[in-house]
């Protein structure tokens, strides 16, 4: 009697262990895949990574809707979550169709239908490698600036003093508030490996943090919305005791 | 030899005959007819997807069959979606739009009518790999090395739902060899052939019907659908001699429980894939495709009678 009961308990434990082992390996594979999302330049309208990963059913309808053959579905040997749409701007960039056919083809809303103006798309962000950009070496290139569909908004050309002569350099600068990440610049860049490349912003973008107050950007001055009462723990405490210089003795 | 021994009798009192492969081509084609139809449907669907995707097939400018087996659209109007994938996505907490739900309902409806795992034998691209492995295994006479419960697939099904909740992505869709093979046939080959080779070797050398018969959660999902589905293999109890030829060709032989079949007049288990192999090898024409409500359930005593006569 007790031996069958024992058998049953052992069998159940074995089954549970099998399920947990299998589940852990499986979960690991999923996590690995999801981590790769940071390397994908997604079609316009793509939601933030977690939301996109959950929604995309990997149907490829966006891929087929693109008239420029920009998009691909990642196959199993790529560093992109398997089966999800992405593009390689250096091969074919997104030409920013006004009617956004890829987004409209998406059945699941992984490409958010809330995107109305293609200029609001954020597929990635262009970054310039100034050590290899021709303009930053003092040559007159600025091809990216001329090719950019949002030229003078997403890419501007600025003067930059040059050490070896009195002539200035004309250097391109990318502005994240307007760059859609379409990658037309990356496609156009004449260097052997593009010196301007589209990446996911979280891979390259820093954050200043609230504790730096940029007074010159703040019309009302540095202490505009400073509130000692809200100060974080560890910051200088509001003065205690008597402030008799200002308030006089009681 | 047969002359010296009296022929074995079936429970219906008739002599047990066995399936003999006809020699004529016409006869063989009759035996193979379901496998031919199945390949036509399987490959035909692939070609429709491929033609729409790569050659722009359309009707009056409307793409014929856009997308793939995970989600697609017919003529730019009728949505279709894999109900199991939609279930997993919904379990991640995402609220999908009504169009996707409609697509999933349509596909669920199709297989609810056509028989649940009819998906497996008639549509799923992995089925061709699995059938190939099973055929090779029979030819090479590979012996079974161990036994695993075929109910394991239901555990995998539950696991894929639980992991979808926990990991926030559709757990099976992210590793599904079915989707990998299908996508790579449509959108270009990557390492997908590794997955196919894996299933082939596993089924061929490790476990008979290993993937489809023991592990695949999508097959398990459609097996649940099959429990209520309309098209079933009908079983004509009086003609069956229990020769067992059906179970020898069946990829899910446990479903050919003849006692239960004679009780309900059909192969009731949802694990039957409606592949029709049993139908064409049955020497007594006991088996045939039928619709659940039109299948005559034999009167109460039949089973006892059958059982009794087999014992004596
Ligand atoms: S906006 Fe146009 S070019 Fe860009 S990915 Fe979508 S369909 Fe292709
Ligand atoms: S259309 Fe939408 S769901 Fe389909 S692959 Fe593209 S992003 Fe994913
Ligand atoms: S069991 Fe799975 S892999 Fe096999 S045919 Fe069915 S769905 Fe396809
Ligand atoms: S019972 Fe017949 S139709 Fe069903 S899976 Fe087996 S051989 Fe195929």
Count up the helices of chain A. Answer: 8
Q: Give the low-confidence spans of chain B.
A: 300-312
Pattern of helices and strands of chain B: HHEEEEEHHHHHHHHHEHHHEH
- Greatest interface: A-B, 36 and 51 residues
Task: List the ligand species.
Answer: iron/sulfur cluster
Helix content of chain B: 40-55%
Largest sheet of chain A: 2 strands, antiparallel
Radius of gyration of chain A: 27 Å
Portion in strands of chain B: 5-15%
Output the number of helix runs of chain B. 15
Overall pLDDT level of chain B:
86
* Number of structurally distinct domains of chain A: 2
User: What strand line-up does the widest sheet of chain A have?
Assistant: 1-2
The domain tally of chain B reads 3
Number of strands of chain B: 7
How is the secondary structure organized here?
The complex is a heterodimer of chains A (250) and B (312).
Chain A lengths: L1 H34 L13 H7 L5 H5 L6 E2 L11 E2 L14 H5 L19 E4 L14 H5 L7 E6 L8 E6 L9 H5 L7 E4 L1 H4 L39 H4 L3
Antiparallel strand pairs in A: 1-2, 3-6, 4-5
Chain B lengths: L24 H7 L1 H23 L2 E2 L2 E2 L1 E4 L2 E4 L3 E4 L1 H9 L6 H17 L3 H5 L3 H15 L11 H16 L9 H11 L4 H15 L3 H6 L1 H10 L4 E5 L9 H5 L8 H7 L12 H5 L5 E5 L10 H10 L1
Antiparallel strand pairs in B: 1-2, 3-4, 4-5, 6-7
Helix pairs in contact in B: 2-8, 3-7, 6-9, 7-11, 8-9, 13-15
Can you describe what's shown?
Chain A has 250 residues and is of the alpha+beta class. Chain A has eight helices and six strands. Chain A has helices at 2-35, 49-55, 61-65, 101-105, 143-147, 184-188, 201-204, 244-247, and strands spanning 72-73, 85-86, 125-128, 155-160, 169-174, 196-199. In chain A, strands 1-2 form a two-stranded antiparallel sheet. A two-stranded antiparallel sheet of chain A has the order 3-6. A two-stranded antiparallel sheet of chain A has the order 4-5. Chain A is extended. The N and C termini of chain A lie far apart (90 Å). The model of chain A has no long low-confidence stretch (mean pLDDT 86). Chain B is mainly alpha-helical and 312 residues long. Chain B folds into three domains: 34-118, no CATH class; 120-224, no CATH class; 230-301, Alpha-Beta Plaits (2-Layer Sandwich). Chain B is 52% helix and 8% strand. Chain B has 15 helices and seven strands. Chain B has helices spanning 25-31, 33-55, 83-91, 98-114, 118-122, 126-140, 152-167, 177-187, 192-206, 210-215, 217-226, 245-249, 258-264, 277-281, 302-311, and strands at 58-59, 62-63, 65-68, 71-74, 78-81, 231-235, 287-291. The A-B interface holds A 15, 19, 22-23, 26-27, 29-31, 33-34, 50-51, 53-55, 57-61, 63-64, 72-73, 75-78, 81-83, 105, 107-109 and B 52-53, 63, 66-68, 70-73, 79, 81-82, 85-86, 89, 92-94, 96-97, 99-100, 103, 155-156, 159, 162-163, 166-171, 173-175, 179-180, 183-184, 186-192, 194-195. The structure holds iron/sulfur cluster (4 copies). One iron/sulfur cluster is lined by residues 56-62, 85, 105-106, 108, 110-111 of chain A.
């Amino acid at each position: 009697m007790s031996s069958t009961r024992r058998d049953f308990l052992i069998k159940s434990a074995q089954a549970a262990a099998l399920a947990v082992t299998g589940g852990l390996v499986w979960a690991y594979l999923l996590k690995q895949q999801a981590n790769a999302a940071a390397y994908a330049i997604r079609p316009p309208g793509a939601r933030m990574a977690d939301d996109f990963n959950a929604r995309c059913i990997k149907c490829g309808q966006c891929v087929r809707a693109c008239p420029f053959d920009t998009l691909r579905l990642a196959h199993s040997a790529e560093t992109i979550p398997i089966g999800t749409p992405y593009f390689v701007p250096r091969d074919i960039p997104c030409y920013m169709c006004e009617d956004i056919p890829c987004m409209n083809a998406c059945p699941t809303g992984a490409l958010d239908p809330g995107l109305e103006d293609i200029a609001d798309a954020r597929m990635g962000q262009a970054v310039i490698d100034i050590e290899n950009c021709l303009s930053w070496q003092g040559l007159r290139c600025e091809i990216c600036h001329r090719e950019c569909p949002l030229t003078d908004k997403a890419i501007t050309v600025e003067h930059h003093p040059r050490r070896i002569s009195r002539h200035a350099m004309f250097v391109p600068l990318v502005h994240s508030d307007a760059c859609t990440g379409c990658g037309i610049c990356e496609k156009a860049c004449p260097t052997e490996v593009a010196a301007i490349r589209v990446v996911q912003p979280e891979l390259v973008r820093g954050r200043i943090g609230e504790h730096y107050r940029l007074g010159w950007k703040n019309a009302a001055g540095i202490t505009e919305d400073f509130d000692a009462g809200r100060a974080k723990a560890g910051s200088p405490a509001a003065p205690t005791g008597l402030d008799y210089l200002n308030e006089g003795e009681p | 030899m047969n002359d010296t021994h009296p022929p074995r009798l079936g429970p219906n009192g008739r002599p047990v005959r066995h399936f003999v492969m006809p020699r004529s081509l016409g006869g063989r084609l009759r035996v193979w007819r379901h496998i031919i139809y199945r390949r036509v449907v399987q490959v035909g669907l692939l070609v429709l997807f491929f033609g729409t995707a790569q050659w722009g097939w359309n009707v009056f400018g409307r793409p014929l069959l856009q997308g793939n087996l995970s989600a697609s659209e017919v003529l730019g109007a009728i949505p279709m979606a894999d109900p199991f994938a939609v279930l997993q996505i919904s379990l991640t907490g995402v609220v999908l739009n009504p169009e996707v739900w409609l697509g999933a309902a349509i596909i669920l409806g199709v297989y609810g009518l056509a028989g649940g795992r009819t998906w497996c034998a008639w549509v799923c691209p992995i089925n061709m790999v699995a059938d190939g492995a099973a055929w090779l295994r029979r030819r090479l006479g590979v012996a079974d090395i161990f036994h695993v419960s075929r109910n394991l697939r239901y555990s995998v099904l539950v696991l894929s739902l639980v992991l979808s909740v926990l990991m926030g992505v559709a757990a099976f869709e992210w590793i599904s060899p079915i989707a990998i093979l299908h996508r790579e046939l449509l959108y270009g080959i990557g390492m997908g052939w590794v997955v196919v080779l894996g299933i082939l070797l596993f089924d061929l050398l490790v476990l008979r019907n290993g993937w489809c018969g023991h592990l695949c959660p999508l097959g398990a999902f459609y097996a649940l659908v099959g429990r209520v589905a309309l098209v079933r293999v009908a079983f004509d109890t009086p003609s069956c001699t229990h020769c067992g030829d059906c179970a020898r060709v069946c990829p899910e032989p446990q479903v050919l429980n003849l006692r239960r079949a004679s009780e309900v007049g059909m192969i009731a288990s949802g694990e039957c894939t409606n592949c029709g192999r049993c139908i064409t090898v049955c020497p007594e024409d006991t088996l045939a495709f039928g619709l659940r409500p039109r299948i005559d359930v034999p009167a109460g005593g039949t089973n006892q009678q059958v059982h009794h006569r087999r014992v004596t």
